[in-house]
Amino acid sequence: MTDTPLSLYRAKLAAGGLKHDPVQALAVEKLESLHHALSGYQPSTGAPGWKARFGLARRERAPTPPQGLYLYGPVGRGKSMLMDLFFRTAPVQAKRRLHFQEFMRDFHSEIHAWRAGRREHHDPVPPLATRMVERGWLLCLDELEVHDIADAMIVGRVFQELMERGAVVVTTSNRHPDDLYKDGLQREKFLPFIDQIKARLDLLHLASETDYRLGRLKGSPVFHTPLGPDSDGALDGLFAHLANGRPVRSDAVFVSGRRVPVPRAAGDVARFSFNDLCEQPLGPADYMHIASVFNAVVVDRVPRLGPENRNAARRFVTLVDALYEHRTLLAMSADAPPEALYPTGDGAFEFQRTVSRLMEMQSEDYLGAKHLA
Which of 178, 285, 307, 334 has the greatest number of CB atoms lying within 10 Å of its CB? Predict the structure, then answer.
């Protein structure tokens, strides 16, 4: 018998890999309905030709696509896991599963390539949308979040063109659509995209009381010392655990128009070295943005700190403050335990507040707290 989202979900329950959750069960039922609706659906290919546009040729009515799905709610509620069950079983050949930021980055790259060498100023979005639908008209997009004004200004048009061509979208997000790009520049130009989401996608709030991310962390320390192969291996395992099977890629965030590289990211989990974050000319705004975008941050190889590396130490203090304020999970490897990380010298006394925060950030209460995006 062909697998469906519901059959795989029940198999996981029976095997003990999941515990029954009524909110997740409702989401699986929605995904099951969409799975069956897709079995008899095929979009019309491409956009209408010029004759149809000007009424010179008969154009058959395009089939109405099934309603997509927008799964939203706090981190750790199983949104990505459920979407992956759906994607794995979807009875569609032309399907793609991408992180939303990867999806937008690819589209910007295709626009750049389209315009390169062209003297004409034709709108690239419609033809690129046609090409994208031909590659995969079922789009599963994980972690829909908009921070970049370049994305905000174009994403509505991209989705409109895709859906006019019959694309079906399933996406996850930590936010209700009304809270996307909140307080962003020129947000009024982004509002039509929110209207599209509400009109074209079925909204489902995964408001489960259980944070499954915390369950994955139980028994897994988040602070590893001393530095060496054992700590490196432990952090590799923890990063993979938090990534939870999502693809790992290089990424970037943009702060006031500046690009801040993220060497490794998987969904809402990011991994940096101490050098990446604290030996570079970064400031409070950069750290606050990283803390808001990512639910978990993994930092490799924090050295002992002191007056000899005071600038890096000051940045580390600012980083910890930003992560703490946003209740971002911090996992790290360091040359010494928190209380011995900045042992003596000018600045050691002030570092005691950071010691206190590093200790609290290992507690179950902190690890189970809601991330403040």
Answer: 334
Judge contact between 129 and 100, C-beta under 8 A: no
First-to-last alpha carbon distance for the chain, in angstroms, is 42
Q: Which architecture does CATH list for 217-367?
A: 3-Layer(aba) Sandwich (3.40)
Task: Write down the pTM of the prediction.
Answer: 0.62
Give the whole-angstrom CA distance, residue 43 versus residue 315. 52
Digit-coded pLDDT (tens) for 20-37: 888 889 999 999 999 999
Query: Using the 8-state DSSP alphabet, how is residue 95 labeled?
Result: E
Half-sphere exposure for 291 (CA within 13 Å, toward CB) = 21
Half-sphere exposure of 296 (CA within 13 A, CB side): 28
Structure tokens at 32: 């099951």
Task: Give the whole-angstrom CA distance, residue 46 versus residue 340.
Answer: 63
Q: Looking up tokens 């700590």, which residue turns up? A: 231
Q: Do strands 95-99 and 138-142 pair parallel, antiparallel, or not at all (unpaired)? A: parallel
Residues 6+ apart with CB under 8 A from 143: 80, 99, 100, 101, 172, 173, 174, 267, 268
Six token digits for residue 324: 């703490």
- Angle (deg, nearest 10), helices 125-135 and 149-164: 60
CATH topology of domain 5-52+62-205: Rossmann fold (3.40.50)
Prior bond of 65 cis (ω within 30°): no
What are the φ and ψ backbone dihedral angles of 305, each rounded to 5 degrees? -115, 155
pLDDT in tens, 72-102: 987 667 888 899 899 999 999 999 998 887 8
